[in-house]
Structure formats: structure tokens, C-alpha cells
Predict the structure of OsmC family protein.
Amino acid sequence: MATHGATITWQRGEEETFLDNRYSRAHFWRFDGGLEVPASSSPHVVRVPFSNPANVDPEEAYVAGLSSCHMLTFLNLAAIRGYRVDSYADAAEGAMAKNAEGREWVATVTLKPHVVFSGPKAPDAAAVEALHHDAHANCFLANSVRSALETQGSWDYRPA
């Protein structure tokens, strides 16, 4: 089985004492391909200026990861089933809630993909629903989390 990794780095600023809890949460994610992504705590969790709203936060990355995994699985299944996909766009959202112990967690991730199909084979609503269902069932990340993952997608078909 494959192993996936990332290197996360943070450095205390010279002017920050840290012990007063007034320090920057800005940090970097480095991936094996060399990409470096500026990250931070969410400004919903830690107020600005101690978080950087321009950076990716872990909650956003979690939602994006689930959306991306679903999309990649959906595209693979669509190709296997003979449906040509021209575009796929998702405005995914994650909703925070408190669990039974009173701790916050990402309770629900809602995927809202809009898929555009073309070509000789047009999917109907049942086929698109089946693609989303099977994508969810086969997405590695969806199989790895406790959060509810919902899909509220739409689609178009544009004949060739």
C-alpha cells in the first residue's frame, strides 16, 4: 500500500514570546512534488492577526481533500461507463458542530458539484446519481472519515 506524506513547518517570530499565546499560527505545508502551501489556523478559530485568512486552513484543506477525492473517483467512473465529462466544479462546504463530548468537529461536508457532459452518450439523472454514489463508496478519503459526506450535485448534457 502507498504512503502519503507532507512536511509541516512553523517558526516562532523573534518578537513573539509564545507563552502569552499571542503568536502567529502561519506555517507551511510542503509536499513531495515540491509544492509549498502557506497555511494557518482558521480565522474562525484564532483571530487575526494571529491567523492569516489568506492562507489555507486545515478545515478548508479537509473539505478540499474530500471534494477532490470524490471528483477524481467520479471522473474515473464516468470514463469507465462511457460518459464524457467536459467540466466539473464543486463549491464544497464543511459545517462545524459540537460532538457529544462538546468538542468541535467538521460534522458534515456537503459537495455541490456541477458536472457538464457531452458526447454520444447522455447520462440521465439516475446515472449521475449512481456515479456520485459509487464515487462516494470508492473515494479513499470518504472511507477514512467520520464526518457525514453529502452530495448535492447538478449536471448538464451538451450533445456533440
